[in-house]
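Protocol step 4 of 6: record predicted structures for both targets in the notebook before any analysis. Target 1:
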Amino acid sequence: MNDRDPRRQAPSTAAPTIEVVATTSAIIDFLAESAAPVGVQQVATVLGLTKSRASRHLANLERLGIVTRSNRGRRFQLGWRVIRWGHLASALPDLPEALGEPLAALRDKLGLTVLICTAAGGDAVVRRCFAARSAIRIEVETGLMLSLPHSPSARVAFAFQSRERRRELLAHLKSREASFRVEDADNFTEQVAAIQRDYYSWTLDKFDLGHGAAAAPVFDFEEALACVVTIMLTSDALTDRAPPRHVIEALLDCCEQCSRLLRSRIRFPVPQ
């Protein structure tokens, strides 16, 4: 089985009893990640399936309109039904549009790339990237999955879900594949408590790409998590202690402004 880039891969949280659904989900994820149509053998190799099993799944998905064949007929790509889902999803409340002004102001104030992310199970997904205006900048793709336990965006998204939902998700997080598994539940619980106290999370350079990140929550009128705002930081701006104080202050101030726009009354703490 080939290793996929963990920065693009969506984690699997499926229990064995829903193996067929999990395999289907993995195929759809892989097709979504692929820049071009892929063949049956490529799907089988990357996902660790037999060629006949991959072929059966693709045939069933084709009948449902979830995948379609390319013009040459031997390769597959996402079908009309997934495109329809995308159009329906695009009609949902447009958080990047509603919060665009304070997020763009945060980008320009710090000269750094800013992301708006939403919860995706126990993880987070990038809804929009406000790329820094400098010639050398960090750009992040819309739709990129930011996964636990390493992503600060995902940690914030997890921390501000309900206690019952966190308990339910943690059972899956402890059994996921190695790249996405929470190995030490006690330590992870302590991290979550710290995020709930401080309202932000950060990380060093996990994948040796020359950057890290800091993230904080935005709340809606029901005082529920609406989204997560993330600042992309160069590695030389991070230390073993924390990101620069002015960056965290600007991040929390922006998230409080965004929360006010969504009619939340939550007051954010002053960073220590």
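Target 2:
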Amino acid sequence: MEKGISVVLQNPTAEEKRAISGLLGKDYSKSKSIKLTAEKIEKAILKTKFGKSLDSISFEEIVEAYHGEPLVSNREEEMRFLSERNTYFNALESDASSRLFVSLIDWIRRTKYNRFYQMYNQDLTALTKAMQHLDQAFALFPLEDYEYLAVFASRATGNPHAFDANENEGKLFLYALQIIYSLQQHWEIRELNAEERAELLYEFRIMTDDLLNFVSVFQALGVNKNGKENMLLHGAAEEQSFFHLPLKEIVKLDSVTSASGKSRLFMIENSSVASHVVSELIKHDLNETIVSGNGQFKIATLKFLDAFVENGGTVYYSGDFDPEGILMAFKLKKRYGDQVSYWNYGLDNYHMALSDEPVSERRLKQLNNIDDPALQPLIQELSKVKRSGYQEKILTKMIEDLKQEKDPSGT
């Protein structure tokens, strides 16, 4: 008799309690649950008047006869489940159309807890369909040129909306892309916000909303991937235009330089502050390059800055004195290292920019993982004062710095 076979009876009825109590010789009248083992029941039956007639038959045989199939222990059931699951993924691998899909299957096998195993347990039919689409999608990589997500999804699955972020297959597609990217680069698999999703897709040459994904640019020049000068940037610099450059145009760029001839640009977080600074530059005939991400780092902003930094340029960042602004500064520092300097972003600037707007403890906790020594004094002061500071209050200082055309490092 298998010693480990057992069952737990939850919320037994009064009749069940009386029957079990009578059989086992134990009072279960006040029990909310009763655990019964096959071994206990078998021994109890053998002590009854039916014991002799059942002497040659085990309780296990009785239960098997009742159910019409052999009893299986939890361990045996688990082993059978794992074997069947392994067979399923082996079959997917053997039919794979791409090396990337094989890499994905290998990662799934090596990872005990993952969404694919969870989906295997919950909806095998949906998983099979999704895995077929993933294999077909991965077979299209690497893409020769940038492609809209809807076009890519249509080619891979026949449905242009299959990989939309709000669709189950779209979520699984992004999860699979994270896995593949983590095998190639330093990437932490996590829940992604909209901009992180766009950046991940961009790494695979897939674009989402490229016309509304833009960066605001003033006085920059560029060279396209075909080796020719980018005439859009050239014309905007000639016209002294501060304009929105969409991702659709940024993907053409191979390198970016400052129209001033200086290997620097000023990244200003707040769009209205950036616009005011540009107006002052034009008014005083000053030639500096200004970039604004309009309050956030869209993929367009980061890819434009990539093209500038990779060409040897330095980014001078100025933002609001709040947790969100500091996090943006730190993100740039992590991405570009010594090619990022903070501009008008010290303690003196913070006190000049102070407002009455409180900063909650919840927002301050966002800064706990920042390890840049240059930002620590500001973080400590913000945590102490608990009030935001805004760029609008230091506009005069920013413009005076640009008028003097001095090295902005440390200001």
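Step 5 preliminary note on target 2. The CA atoms of residues 74 and 80 lie 10 Å apart. The longest strand covers residues 253-258.
Proceed to step 6 after PI sign-off.
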